[in-house]
Amino acid sequence: MTKTKIIHPNYGIVRAGVINAFRFLRNRGIVARTNYMCCTTCASFGLAQIALEKGKKGFAYYHGQDIEGFKEDGCVYIGFGGTKDWYDDELMNRDREKPFSFPERGLTDNEAGELVARVLREQSDLVISWRDPERKIRVSGRRRR
Asked: Stretch 113-121: mean pLDDT, rounded?
């Protein structure tokens, strides 16, 4: 007998809020993707490459491994990064004939996190928890009014 998994009631609300905020971020020079790649390492590296190639300021995402926990507990953790910090990374420019061009107003990782957290707060009525630039941004159910 297969056990049916129940999706948390906040899942749809949080997902819709994140999608709306990501749309807003994309219009402001941030590459933003949902369910992107398998894990933090792959998603961060892949989106940093895309952001640098397109001359964007930074990136934000949640990845495939986040989905199961997101459906079960109704909250998701948003990863982020700024192209200013990734541009100098030796791995990003190694073995390239033509290195990435640096975006004129690229953000540091911390600045990207601050922007993503602010947009999530402003563009949704979700609970946003983030204090440490070394950690992901936690997004959960609606704020109480």
From this structure: 96
